[in-house]
């Protein structure tokens, strides 16, 4: 190719590249202007400034230019790139701010709207009764003792003066795991275990917990229920100590003007044994449906610890004595809260449970 012709070709090429560059710049700027969000803006960035974009292509084509034209064209391309980049960044800032503003607007909280009520649960009425009794006795220097619900026949019966074949076992039919292992029928085995562990020391405990009987469930019977038993052993523990303790318990649970009366009864593990009644908290003794017209309500069984029970646990009945009592938490809760069916305590019906409003702060 003659030199002049080649020069004309190059002039044309430079002119063509400049034209193309201006066109690309205008296109890019228009698209940046039109970008509605950051994603669209990024698409423009990739399309025009990316490695596969037209501006990079133009740079690759610079090899066709003369050594003099190349730097000029290079500078021009850089100017366009810088310009497009600057406009793009400005636009990006604007779009980012807009996105933040939109997010804030959509998430704004109207503080004048009423709040949503958060449902707060109550303590179960049985838990409430047990905790009240625990508080009372802990305040009188008792310890809380617990033991296994799956228990040995020995601790559940034998150590409590109920040898195999004893007729009183019939009143406490249980669920047997094996001949020697059963679900405990009362919390008394905790007393037997504590006496065994204390090895002759004085004792002042209450034992709350689940117990089991093979009963058919009805309004007043449940195969599972909660008991709270108390045991005091030491020198000079007398029936009057038991009576004073039960009187305190009755007044705490059912009101300061309650009176108690003790009636003779029988339990294999206590001698003498008593049933405790309280004067009716509804009618005050005149007779009503709660006390079935008698003016008295049966609350619990108690007695002086049987000498055999003391002896089996390693205590000398000639030196020490003790008393024990047992309360059904359900019976207390039914009387206190006017519940007519024991099964309500175990059906987890929130309509029932929510009636016991929180009273504690
Ligand atoms: Zn009454």
CATH topology value of the largest domain: BirA Bifunctional Protein, domain 2
Please outline the major beta sheet: 7 strands, mixed
Give the distance, in angstroms, between the N- and C-terminal Cα atoms.
Answer: 102 Å
Number of structural units classed as domains? 2
The distinct bound ligands, ions and cofactors come out as: zinc ion
Pfam family, one: Phe_tRNA-synt_N
Domain Aminoacyl-transfer RNA synthetases class-II family profile: 127-335
GO molecular function, one term: magnesium ion binding
Subcellular location: Cytoplasm
Description:
The chain is an alpha+beta fold and 361 residues long. It has 2 domains: 3-107, no CATH class; 125-353, Bira Bifunctional Protein, Domain 2 (BirA Bifunctional Protein, domain 2, 2-Layer Sandwich). Helix content is 43%, strand content 18%. The chain has 11 helices and 9 strands. A 7-stranded mixed sheet has the order 1-4-5-9-8-7-6, with helices on both faces. It has a two-stranded antiparallel ribbon with strand order 2-3. A hairpin with a 2-residue loop joins strand 6 (260-267) and strand 7. Helix 1 (3-34) packs antiparallel against helix 2 and helix 1 packs parallel to helix 4. The longest helix is centred in the first third of the chain and has 39 residues, at 69-107. It binds zinc ion.
């Amino acid at each position: 190719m003659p030199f002049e012709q080649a020069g004309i070709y190059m002039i044309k090429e430079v002119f063509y590249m400049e034209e193309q560059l201006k066109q690309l710049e205008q296109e890019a700027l228009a698209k940046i202007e039109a970008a509605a969000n950051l994603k669209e803006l990024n698409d423009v960035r990739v399309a025009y400034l990316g490695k596969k974009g037209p501006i990079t292509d133009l740079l690759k084509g610079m090899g066709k230019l003369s050594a003099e034209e190349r730097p000029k064209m290079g500078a021009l391309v850089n100017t366009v790139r810088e310009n497009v980049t600057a406009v793009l960044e400005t636009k990006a800032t604007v779009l980012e701010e807009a996105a933040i503003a939109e997010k804030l607007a959509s998430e704004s909280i109207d503080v004048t709207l009423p709040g949503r009520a958060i449902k707060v649960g109550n303590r179960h009425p049985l838990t409430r009764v047990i905790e009240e009794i625990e508080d009372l006795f802990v305040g009188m220097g008792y310890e809380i003792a617990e033991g296994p619900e799956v228990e040995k026949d020995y601790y559940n019966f034998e150590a409590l003066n109920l040898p195999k074949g004893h007729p009183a076992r019939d009143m406490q039919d249980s669920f047997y795991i094996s001949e020697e292992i059963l679900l405990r029928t009362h919390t008394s085995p905790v007393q037997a275990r504590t006496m065994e562990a204390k090895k002759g020391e004085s004792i002042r405990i209450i034992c709350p917990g689940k117990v089991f009987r093979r009963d058919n469930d009805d309004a007043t019977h449940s195969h599972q229920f909660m008991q709270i038993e108390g045991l005091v052993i030491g020198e000079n523990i007398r029936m009057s100590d038991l009576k004073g303790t039960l009187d305190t318990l009755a007044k705490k649970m059912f009101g300061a003007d309650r009176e108690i009366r003790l009636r003779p009864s029988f339990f294999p593990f206590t001698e003498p044994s008593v049933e405790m009644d309280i004067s009716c908290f509804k009618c005050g003794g005149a007779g009503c449906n709660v006390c079935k017209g008698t003016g008295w309500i049966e609350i619990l069984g108690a007695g002086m610890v049987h000498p055999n029970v003391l002896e089996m646990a390693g205590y000398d009945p000639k030196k020490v004595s003790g008393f024990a009592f047992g309360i059904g938490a359900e019976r207390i809760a039914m009387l206190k809260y006017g519940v007519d069916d024991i099964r309500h305590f175990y059906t987890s019906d929130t309509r029932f449970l929510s009636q016991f409003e929180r009273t504690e702060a």
